[in-house]
Amino acid sequence: MRNSNTNNWRSTALVAGAILTAGVVTTTSTTDVHADNSQNNAQVSNDQVTYDQVRATADQQLAQLQSANDSKEAQQATANEQSNAADLAQTNAQIDQLKASHAALEQEQAGAIAQAQASTAASIEAQTSAANAEYQQQINTQQQNEATQRAANDQQYAQAVNQAAENQQAVADINAQYQKALSDAANTQTSQAQAAANNYNSAVAKENDTYQGKLSAQQATNAENIKNAEASLASATANANKPYEVATTNDVAVTGRVAKPQTDVKVPAYVTKYGIHLEVRGYNGAIPVSDYTYPEFANTYYGEYPDSAVITNKAAESTPHDISEMPLDFQPGLLSYDAKNDHSEKVSADGLTADQVQVLRALALSWENGFRNNVFQNYREFYNVVNKNDGFVNVAPVDLVSTDFTDNIANQVVANRTKYNIDNNSHTVISSGMPAEATYTSVINDATKNLKKNLTSEFNGKTVYTDVNENLTTMQAGTPTLLNYAINLYNSMQGMYYGELVNPTHIGGHAVNLLCAGVRTVGIGFQKLTDEMTAKNGSGVSDRKNPSYAVTFDHVGFNIDYDANLTKEVQNRNVWGTSTVDAQLNTIKTAQYHVNKVPGTKTVTPTATDVQKATASEQQKLADVKAQAQQSLDALASAHQASLNKLAQQYNDAKAQVKANYDVAVTKAASVRDAVLKATGVVDLQAYKAQLDSAYQNLVKADQVAAQKLAADRDAKIANIKKVENVKLDAKINELVPSVDPQIKQLQDQHQAVIAHGDAVLAELKAENKAAYNKLAEQFNVQLAAIQRRENAKRANKVRLANNTVVLPSAVKVANDGNTDTVAIPTASNLLQAETTGRVQTVSAPSIVKTATQTPIAVTPVVTTVNHAAENTVKSNESSVPVVTQTTAVNGTQTSVASTADNKATKADNSEKSVVKAGTVAKKQTPAKKSESSQKVDQSSMSIVALAATALLGTLGITYSSKKRHN
Question: Would residue 395 be called left, alpha or beta, if left means φ above 0 and alpha means ψ between -120 and 50 degrees?
């Protein structure tokens, strides 16, 4: 926020006001775009010295105690190690002695052990031989049974062969009768098959003759139908090829007039002499054009003058005549205004209507997006400097949106500003004279709390940063039209954004706020200024007949863990509301480019495609006739084929019956033959032999299965014999030479008990040492806390900073908000942690005592204004200084969701040309400056809140400059 005739940042004052209101200094950080603040250090109190001495003593005694504890614990550990080593040596010696005694006894009993082993081997051999003999006897029995069965089978088959020889003649007679029956059946089959074939051939010939007659008649009918259809198609084709007249429309592109920003602007000498004063950190006065990396940005500053009043070479192509001619992009350069050629809507004395506000919101949104995209595409170094720590270097920003969601935010901000009478030189913050719940951050936090909560839950384990900032400017118009307001806002935003891009190391706060890639939405509010506000010196309003507005740009967004991909995914979600400016933007876009339809006629010569379409019906009729013709032929053929199939089925049935008759005769002959053979006792030798062989093979298979089980039983018996005998042998050897393993195990367990005892002693010592250390640390903590309370009590009433003495009438307790660090001696559990501590200061409404040598603080200069509309010349003895619209910004800060920092940038249009005599500047409510030795302070000329904030900030290590600097 800039005052009317000086480029003076107020962000530090805003921060001080916030601290006075909160009453608590915390360790959270606030980005301050101010540079060049002179710093004063507070005096150190006696309590602080005492505190530091006690703290040093505590550190020394605790370190000594810790060292002593460490020494005792190390000695105990060493003693444990020595005791364990000695016991281990003794245990190993005893174990070695037991093993040696055991080995000697084994040597002494070697003969008895060998005798026992030999006896065991002999017993196993004898029992194994007996088991094998039993198994072999069982196998021999199986083999004898198989031989007996084979001999019996051979004898039975020989008897059957002898019997067959005796019946050979009877069998021959029976077979001869059987063969005659087969021959008779075959002759009958042949006669019946020939009769069936003759009947079939006769029926097929008759069917073929009938079909041929029907086919000829149908073909003649089809030919006549096709001929008629072809003639009809030929007539339709001739008609379709005739040319004809048709009505037409032609597309004519219409490009509307769009004003082009002017970069080569020229201004009067007094403006050039005054120079460029913008809110860019590091510049105390005018900014030389040579400092700009891109000189075309320097001229955008002159957009701060209402209606581009200082431009002497206004270009016609840069002068829009209606809202539809306003550019939607945002290239560097200024627009001019011509009241005589203004065809836009009028704005009533009551101010902008709701529809007119939406038009201006649509334009301002488009311009902010145009600035972001143009800087990213063509001036990337500025974009990357702003976003170097946010994960968006060389990553394109997502376009801002203006929705019902942001309109509600903007409207609430305007309502709060109006309620608390906040002028166009003040942000929507506490220090401007409004309660915390009415600030723009409070409005935004309330609107986004659910979204913020959901994102924090969704991205658990990651940090969710809230990007929030506010830019502020003034909009006015000499002519009460919508176009005049729009041009004024466009030019003002040129200076507020492009004018602040001096070089990558010097970027103004407004530009920083807008280039922050984490923001996704912008609530654009239009606060109508009261007469009291516009009448203030420094308001920047030149024409008070028409309504003037403070325009707020409240930007909102979230940055997910400085991860551009995650952040853009959230930005592209459907959680930001519904756009409320699409219709307005589309209306302007349509005016700037659209297509008209022009009616006419033309003669059309039908194309092949046209003819094809026109004759499609006749072509379809011809196709249908041909299809019907083919269908009729297909129907005849189908019926004919069905008749042939029926005759073939009848023929096949007849042949099947003939075959069935033959099969019955053959079966009967075989049955008669078998019955006679059976009566004579004839046996089928081959079948009989097969039967005997099968019975023998079944016996062999059963014996093989039994033999496998016998072998398994024998093997299991032998294994059990060996197991039993070896158990007996082991018992005998153990009786001769007892085992020493139980004694060795006992010695090892005793050694482990010694180790466990040493560990327990060391653990008990460590616990005692830790308790002693913590007790001493707690004693020092109590003592330090008492000193801290005494120091706070002394500071509650008076604070001295260099030449300033701040008198605080009464102490007001402030609850710890969770962000205040406390001081404590580290305990044994966090001994290696280093804590940096801050002290809580409680303040109340302060009064200031200022020494005679101090330069007044927070003084707002006022200049004499001259109406150049009525007087176009400057007196020769005066140095003219231009009146400018001035812009202030605080760089946008990113904070986690837990604490959101206010990011503020303010701009107040100063549209009245001002002239100040050389060497003289009138100060608002401030007496003329005298020599430093005799200067006195007029308390009524100062802001009590600003002075108290200055003193308090100095006490806390935060500096506030009493100089008026351009940053």
Answer: beta
**What DSSP letter does each residue of 49-108 carry, written as one string?**
HHHHHHHHHHHHHHHHHHHHHHHHHHHHHHHHHHHHHHHHHHHHHHHHHHHHHHHHHHHH
Residue 541 and residue 474 in contact, taking contact as beta carbons nearer than 8 Å: yes
Taking each helix axis from N to C terminus, what angle separates 110-166 and 46-108, rounded to the nearest 10 degrees?
70
Return the biggest CA–CA distance within the chain. 170
Residue 277: per-residue pLDDT: 83
pLDDT tens-place string over residues 351-397: 999 999 999 999 999 999 999 999 999 999 999 999 999 999 999 99
CA distance 99 to 103: 6
The residue among 267, 254, 259 whose CA lies nearest residue 342 is 259
What radius of gyration, in Å, describes the C-alpha atoms of the chain?
57
Distance CA 921, CA 558 (A): 45
Residue 153 confidence (pLDDT) above 50: yes
CA gap 805, 808 in Å, rounded? 10
pLDDT for 807: 61
Tell whether the model's pLDDT for residue 29 goes beyond 50. Answer: no
Residue with tokens 């205004």: 337
Please give the Cα distance from 242 to 691 (Å, whole number).
101
Encoded tokens for 517? 């890639």
Chain centroid offset of residue 465 CA: 14
| CA distance readout (Å), 30 to 439, 775, 901 | 17, 39, 7
Select from 449, 574, 390 the least CA-distant residue to 897: 449
Average pLDDT along the chain: 80
Place of tokens 């400017």: 473
- Residues 555 and 516: their CA atoms lie apart, in Å, by 9
> Distance of CA 62 to CAs 56, 776, 829, Å?
10, 7, 13
Identity of the amino acid at 681: G
| Pairwise CA distance, residues 843 & 855, whole Å | 24
pLDDT band, very low/low/confident/very high, at 793 (cuts 50, 70, 90): confident
d(CA 567, CA 390): 10
pLDDT at 198 over 80: yes
Decide if pLDDT at 145 tops 80: yes
Alpha carbons 89 and 747: distance in angstroms, whole number: 11
Integer CA distances (angstroms), 239 to 136, 411, 608, 614, 625, in order: 115, 70, 13, 9, 22
